[in-house]
From TrEMBL:
GO cellular component: cytosol
Biochemical pathway: Amino-acid biosynthesis; L-histidine biosynthesis; L-histidine from 5-phospho-alpha-D-ribose 1-diphosphate: step 9/9
Gene: hisD
Protein name: Histidinol dehydrogenase
Taxonomic source organism: Thermoflavimicrobium daqui
Binding residues annotated for substrate, in chain numbering: 229, 251, 254, 320, 353, 407, 412
Organism placement in taxonomy: Bacteria, Bacillati, Bacillota, Bacilli, Bacillales
Length: 429
């Protein structure tokens, strides 16, 4: 079960690398096939990997309408409300173009433009993750992306989960294709007769999807190469051990490689959490997955005090950070590295996964040291604007030429000189 470990052991214990050379070779072969053969190989690979013979990749309007008829009304209400909250949150992230006129007539500024076409990968098959649809599509739509294309693997009968189609319609997906795996990523990156090339690919997937995104980066942009999900809980003696255990197990049930770590200065709390974990595990439908994650990548660390707990957390740089202490706001300033922060006992990580509004696509494996979660910024580009005036060029031209000559770039300097010479000649007339 979960073990109590020392701080130095915990940091080493957290490190994980999952990329394998064998899978990389397979992915490269698939990408080259899709680049060379297009749609025909996509149909063949879908038959080979998903066991489905399709006559068309595109999801029809009638299929989406049927999905709305199939889903439970409670689900429809929940996903609609979640979408509205997610949309409202991301609206606050929007950035706008600006221009700054100076007294000499110079205008400097920044032009903000959305990407034109984005591809969203949504895991499918036996799994159904409508929350993934909302979290990846809605920020793109808020940013102003003209066309959002979604790809997702079909079920054995050639259909897509009704919940996925409903979420896609509510989020505003423009086109949905029944295709998954590395071949879907390749199709989005390079385009085929059926599937148009995109500017960026986002969304989670298995090792083949992750490696395919890595391989096509540069041809298109991607969100990240996500690793297994993780959480760090910082708790003191005032924390409820039932809540702490439940939140750690909620993270552990994702994947055998998920990481759930508790940092606490309270030995008593640690002991109670271990008891709670053992009790709650017995009632979980994903018991084996959670147990494996806690055994291999879970841990409880007894710290000297809360400042030490926060210092250690910043080294781990978790994807999710829960602060379950008596006065959580008093310690917020000590948080330097975390993908998302959950303050207080009424803010379990699950509320962020589905409903609160902030994005649940977050940096994993310690990369919150330098990455941010998915958001509106992920779907825009910024262009600088320079409009120099005659007066400003005459004032600054010599300085520019000095810098250009220092770097040995004579043509740069000459492009300034010809303008200065022309202006001086005009003044002498």
């Amino acid at each position: 079960m979960i073990a109590i470990v020392k701080p130095d052991e915990l940091v080493k214990h957290k490190q994980f690398k999952s990329i394998q050379q064998k899978e990389e070779h397979v992915v490269k072969e698939i990408i080259e096939l899709v680049k060379a053969e297009g749609d025909p190989i996509l149909y063949e690979l879908t038959h080979r990997f998903d066991g489905v013979l399709l006559d068309s990749f595109m999801v029809r309007k009638e299929e989406i309408e049927q999905a709305f008829a199939e889903v439970d009304p409670d689900f429809l209400q929940a996903v609609s409300e979640a979408a509205e909250r997610i949309r409202r949150y991301h609206e606050k992230q929007k950035q706008y173009s600006w221009m700054d006129p100076e007294e000499d007539g110079t205008i400097l500024g920044q032009i903000v433009r959305p990407l034109e076409r984005v591809g969203v990968y949504v895991p499918g098959g036996r799994a159904a993750y409508p929350s993934t649809v909302l979290m990846n599509v809605l920020p793109a739509k808020v940013a102003g992306v003209s066309e959002v294309i979604m790809v997702t693997p079909p079920l054995s009968d050639g259909n897509i989960h009704a919940s996925i189609l409903v979420a896609a319609k509510i989020a505003g997906v423009d086109t949905i294709y029944k295709i998954g795996g590395a071949q879907a990523i390749a199709a989005l990156a390079y385009g085929t007769d059926t599937i148009p090339q995109v500017d960026k690919i986002v969304g989670p997937g298995n090792i083949y999807v992750a490696l395919a995104k890595k391989a096509v980066y540069g041809q298109v942009d991607i969100d990240s190469i996500a690793g297994p999900s993780d959480i760090v809980v910082i708790a003191d003696k005032a924390a409820n051990p039932t809540y702490v255990a439940a939140d750690m197990l909620a993270q552990a049930e994702h994947d055998p490689l998920s990481s759930a770590i508790l940092l606490t200065p309270s030995v008593h709390l640690a002991e109670q959490v271990i008891i709670e974990i053992e009790q709650q595990l017995g009632d979980m439908n994903r018991h084996e997955i959670a147990a494996s994650a806690l055994k291999n990548r879970g841990g409880i660390c007894i710290t000297n005090d809360l400042p030490e707990a926060f210092a250690l957390m910043n080294q781990l740089a978790p994807e999710h950070l829960e602060i379950l202490i008596e006065k959580p706001w008093d310690f917020l300033s000590q948080v330097k590295n975390a993908g998302a922060i959950f303050l207080g006992e009424y803010s379990p990580e699950a509320i962020g996964d589905y409903f609160a509004g902030p994005n649940h696509v977050l940096p994993t494996e310690g990369t919150s040291r330098f990455f941010s979660g998915l958001g509106v910024d992920s779907f825009i580009k910024k262009m600088s604007l320079i409009s120099y005036s005659r007066k400003a060029l005459l004032r600054d031209g010599a300085r520019v030429m000095t810098l250009a000559h220092t770097e040995g770039l004579g043509a740069h300097a000459y492009s300034i000189q010809v303008r200065l010479d022309k202006e001086k000649a005009g003044e002498n007339k």
